[in-house]
């Protein structure tokens, strides 16, 4: 049973170490110290002459020539088998122990393996009977491997990943997982996170957000007015310092594709990239709908065209301040929607113009606009809350200055009249506002055939506004009551403050009108 | 018949507000066979809008003066006309109505608390709404852009950079910074970002995103989460080391520190710099603590509106304008049917409005103030203003143009940027350095 070749020199020289090792092997094979002696089958199931070129066996199918070794669970789980007698430090390998013993000035002997003999391959099987690898034909060839297998399959999972709470029995497994945990994730446009590619793809197929976006995108592209613009969106030109209109860029979701100017755009596109899909989802939803509305609006809602506007846009060079054509014919036109309508009604304009107008139309509100204000750069539609507040404030301020009874509900005539007489610009003179209010009021009034004489008496100017409003507010509607324009449906009783406003002749009629609201 | 008692002082300065006058004006209505059942059916939207404003102001008056019967009547009418899914004015009015009602309710604290007893805080919803705000408005994007630019410029030549984010909720900001640092000519510094937030999950998500990006670009990077509310933050937790260059970013956080119980006298409105600053205390302590860390740059983004008046009427008037502007923005960008828009309106703006109108004292945390006041405060705390660079402003403006956020403007005001909507200042971004 000696495997040492018949070479006296080698025998003698290597006797010490090798024999020792051999005996060790023998031990293992024949009678395994502290181990279960039962397992020592002969693995020679398939006689397979060991060829010079070692081909790789299937995992768990060992080399038939190898010695099968079965280690007990204790051995498999043992971490430090070799213990130093001086300090009781444990080592996994004998070599390490020997090196350690040098430190204690103890005699040490490093075992050396002789290269001349063929070392018989060792394969290991798992001691658990029900395990796959318990069978000798499925033995594992690596000691470390069998140890890890034993821990993984039959051992206790002591290591836990912090991020995902996954448990591991082998520390190296745990560490490897921790490196990649959560790093590779897929994110759907709707915001859900996935760690697996397959589940991600499945989700996306059914995700609502995507289908919506897809629908909008397709509907957009169907619209001829927009499709030309989408083609142009790829070239963003931030380098153009002068004006935006030379950029064929559509707002919102189309913007962050194709950026030219490196540094400035980089900063901006960083934001695009960083949250690109969310942005695009959001914006294409929002803006595309708006743009769609705008374009369809162009076609359907604003059918009329006064060709005078075409001239404004026929050349490519516009200034940034868009002239808002006042139309008295159709009060429903927005500033640029009107311009757009002109364009679309008169054949497809050039892409630049299209862009421009689309850009406008998507931003300026599509509500009815009477604020066709050429002077200011603020196309505030009266429907916007800001405009309403301004109007209210103006009415309040002109109240103190005005000689007319302001009518808030001038009805539909408000738009037309205001479009005719330049609607509330921010810094208009009181007289103008007064005039306008007069207009409103009168048109309103004329409908009902009332005669409301402007209460000129006793209306002082700014002092009224300054002192009294707050007082009046404190007590509710008193000044109004005093002035005779009572809306007493809140049931506020009168406190008599001295009011500069004279009494109004139409007091009873007003009251009557509001009776049902009281 | 109704007891009217004055509200605490500060009224005279508001007297000139034209809106106040408006609220007293009569509202004549044309024609109309008055029908008792639905008197408002045929109101044109514009009329309705104006009427809503009138009602809101009237109601606020009544609430302020304590005449609850009248306030109740006004509220009823408001509910008839306003709606969270109507037009802009209707929506704004709806949230203000709710806020006013809450204010009345607070006079019965037990009742108020009981009605809110089952309210839960949904973290993911909060995060989602915040993200929606980021998406739907350019404000945060511009703020981040300007912040990053200021940081980049001040950190030129620095090898060790430590950035503290006082409300780390949006990774996009720091993603952009990481990328910007990566492409600077001298190469990226060793970057450390400390994020403060009261929810751990948000910080985890941010950590993950940022670390991934840094690894991709191979930048030495560290993210330190600090799970803490800002007010109970101990600066020791921030672990600022010597030798590193410190940058602090505060986005819409500082105003919370102004909330106290003692009514800080703050006369309204137009900021003259001689106005006494309301309520020192918490904010000053905090600013001092930050000053103690010797940051190289501190960038502050805050609301630029005076919502910290001492009377509810003042606050209502101001905030009406502000939120009207914000709701207008949404109206022009997002369709009315959008659920996301309603979420932002309700859970973000609605809550702010509620806080401004209905709450007082420590509870009222949305204490927005004008830029001038903030500048004063921060200056007093030992910081010197760092004007935002021309390049930064250019980037900001380009961003607005590029994303097509029309109607927005960036104004410059003594070195600080003010983001306006149609001339209404909304938010401001300013940069400061520690002055020793």
What does this entry look like structurally?
- The complex is a heterodimer of chains A (about 525) and B (about 425).
- Chain A has 19 helices and eight strands.
- Chain A has a domain at about 65-105 and about 120-155.
- The longest helix of chain A is centred in the middle third of the chain and has 26 residues, at about 275-300.
- Chain A is mainly alpha-helical.
- Chain A has helices at about 10-30, 75, 95-105, 145-155, 170-180, 195-205, 210-220, 225-230, 260-275, 275-300, 310-315, 335-345, 350-365, 385-400, 415-420, 430-450, 460-475, 480-485, 505-515, and strands spanning about 65-70, 80-85, 90, 120-125, 160, 165-170, 185, 195.
- Helix content of chain B is about 45%, strand content about 15%.
- Chain B has helices at about 20-25, 45-65, 70-80, 90-105, 110-115, 125-135, 140-155, 170-180, 200-215, 280-290, 310-335, 340-360, 370-380, 390-400; strands at about 160-165, 190-195, 220-225, 245-250, 295-305, 385, 410-415, 415-420, 425-435.
- In chain B, helix 1 (about 20-25) crosses helix 2 (about 45-65), helix 2 (about 45-65) runs parallel beside helix 4 and helix 8 (about 170-180) packs parallel to helix 9.
- Residues about 1-15, about 30-35 and about 265-275 of chain B have low confidence and may be disordered.
- The chains are: A mainly alpha (about 525), B alpha/beta (about 425).
- At the A-B interface, helix 9, helix 10, helix 13, helix 14 and helix 16 of A face helix 1, helix 2, helix 3, helix 4 and helix 6 of B.
- Chain A: One of its GO terms (molecular function) is DNA binding.
- Chain A: Keywords: DNA-binding, Metal-binding, Repeat, Transcription, Transcription regulation, Zinc, Zinc-finger.
């Amino acid at each position: 049973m000696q495997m040492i070749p018949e070479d006296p020199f080698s025998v003698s020289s290597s006797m010490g170490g090798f024999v020792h090792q051999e005996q060790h092997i023998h031990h293992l094979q024949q009678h395994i110290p502290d181990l279960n002696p039962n397992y020592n089958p002969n693995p020679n199931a398939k006689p397979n002459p060991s060829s010079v070129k070692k081909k790789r066996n299937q995992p768990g199918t060992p080399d038939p020539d190898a010695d099968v070794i079965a280690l007990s669970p204790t051995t498999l789980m043992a971490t430090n088998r070799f213990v130093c007698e001086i300090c009781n430090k444990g080592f996994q390998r004998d070599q390490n122990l020997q090196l350690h013993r040098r430190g204690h000035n103890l005699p040490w002997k490093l075992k050396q393996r002789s290269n001349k003999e063929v070392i018989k391959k060792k394969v290991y099987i798992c001691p658990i009977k029900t395990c796959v690898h318990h069978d000798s034909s499925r033995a594992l060839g690596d000691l470390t491997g069998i140890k890890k297998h034993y821990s993984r399959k039959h051992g206790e999972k002591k290591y836990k990943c912090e991020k995902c709470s996954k448990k591991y029995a082998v520390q190296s497994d745990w560490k490897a997982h921790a490196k990649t945990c959560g790093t590779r994730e897929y994110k759907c446009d709707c915001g859900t996170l996935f760690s697996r590619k397959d589940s991600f793809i499945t989700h996306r197929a059914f995700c609502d957000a995507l289908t919506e976006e897809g629908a909008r995108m397709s509907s957009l592209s169907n619209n001829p007015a927009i499709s030309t613009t989408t083609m142009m969106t790829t070239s963003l030109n931030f380098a153009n310092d002068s004006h935006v209109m030379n950029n064929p860029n559509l707002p919102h979701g189309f913007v962050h594709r194709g950026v030219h100017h490196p540094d400035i755009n980089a900063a901006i596109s960083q934001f695009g990239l960083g949250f690109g899909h969310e942005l695009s989802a959001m914006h294409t939803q929002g803006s595309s709908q708006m743009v769609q509305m705008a374009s369809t609006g162009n076609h359907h809602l604003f059918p009329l065209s006064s060709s005078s506007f075409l001239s404004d846009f026929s050349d490519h060079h516009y200034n940034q301040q868009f002239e808002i054509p006042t139309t008295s014919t159709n009060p429903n036109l927005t500033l640029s929607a009107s311009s757009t309508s002109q364009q679309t009604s008169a054949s497809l304009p050039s892409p630049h113009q299209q862009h421009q107008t689309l850009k406008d139309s998507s931003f300026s509100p599509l509500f009815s606009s009477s604020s066709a204000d050429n002077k200011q750069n603020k196309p505030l539609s009266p429907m916007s809350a800001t405009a309403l507040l301004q109007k209210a404030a103006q009415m309040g301020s002109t109240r103190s200055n005005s000689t007319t009874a302001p009518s808030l509900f001038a009805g539909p005539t408000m738009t037309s009249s205001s479009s005719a007489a330049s609607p509330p610009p921010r810094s208009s003179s009181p007289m103008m506002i007064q005039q306008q209010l007069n207009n409103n009021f009168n048109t309103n009034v004329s409908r009902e055939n009332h005669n409301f004489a402007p209460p000129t008496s006793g209306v002082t100017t700014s002092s009224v506004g300054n002192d009294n409003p707050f007082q009046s507010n404190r007590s509710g509607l008193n000044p109004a009551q005093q002035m005779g324009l009572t809306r007493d449906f809140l049931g506020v009783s009168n406190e008599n403050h001295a009011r500069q406003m004279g009494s109004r002749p139409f007091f009873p009629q007003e009251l009557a009108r509001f009776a049902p609201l009281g | 018949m109704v007891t009217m008692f004055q509200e605490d002082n500060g009224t005279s300065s508001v007297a000139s507000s034209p809106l106040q006058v408006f609220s007293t004006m009569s509202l004549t209505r044309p024609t109309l066979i008055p029908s008792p059942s639905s008197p408002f059916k045929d109101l044109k939207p514009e009329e309705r809008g104006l009427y809503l404003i009138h009602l809101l102001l009237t109601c606020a008056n009544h609430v302020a003066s304590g005449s609850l019967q009248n306030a109740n009547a006004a509220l009823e009418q408001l509910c008839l006309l306003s709606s969270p899914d109507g037009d802009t004015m209707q929506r704004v009015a709806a949230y203000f109505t709710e806020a006013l009602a809450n204010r009345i309710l607070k006079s019965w604290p037990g009742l108020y608390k009981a009605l809110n007893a089952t309210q839960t805080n949904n973290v993911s919803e909060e995060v989602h709404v915040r993200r929606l705000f980021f998406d739907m408005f350019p404000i945060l994007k511009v703020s981040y852009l300007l912040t990053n630019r200021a940081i980049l410029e001040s950190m030129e030549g620095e090898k060790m950079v430590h950035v503290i984010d006082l409300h780390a909720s949006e990774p996009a900001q720091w993603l952009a910074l990481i990328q910007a640092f990566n492409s600077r000519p001298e190469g990226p510094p060793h970057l450390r970002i400390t994020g403060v937030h009261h929810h751990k999950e948000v910080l985890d998500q941010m950590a993950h995103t940022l670390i991934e990006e840094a690894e991709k670009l191979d930048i030495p990077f560290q993210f330190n989460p600090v799970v803490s509310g800002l007010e109970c933050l101990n600066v020791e937790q921030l672990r600022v080391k010597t030798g590193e260059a410190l940058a602090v970013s505060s986005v819409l956080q500082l105003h919370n520190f102004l909330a106290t119980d003692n009514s800080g006298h703050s006369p309204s409105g137009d900021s003259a710099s001689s106005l006494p600053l309301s309520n020192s205390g918490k904010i000053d302590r905090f600013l001092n603590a930050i000053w103690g860390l010797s940051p190289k740059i501190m960038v502050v983004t805050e609301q630029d509106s005076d919502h910290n008046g001492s009377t509810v009427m003042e606050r209502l008037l101001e905030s009406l304008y502000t939120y009207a502007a914000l709701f207008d923005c949404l109206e022009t960008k997002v369709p009315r049917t959008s659920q996301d828009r309603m979420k932002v309106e309700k859970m973000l703006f609605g809550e702010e409005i509620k806080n401004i109108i209905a709450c007082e004292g420590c509870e009222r945390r949305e204490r927005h103030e004008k830029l001038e006041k903030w500048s004063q405060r921060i200056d007093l705390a030992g910081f010197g203003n760092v004007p935002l660079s021309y390049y930064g402003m250019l980037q900001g403006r380009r961003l607005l143009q590029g994303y097509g956020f029309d109607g927005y403007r960036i104004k410059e005001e003594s070195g600080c940027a003010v983001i306006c909507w149609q001339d209404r200042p909304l938010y401001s971004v300013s940069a400061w350095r520690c002055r020793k």
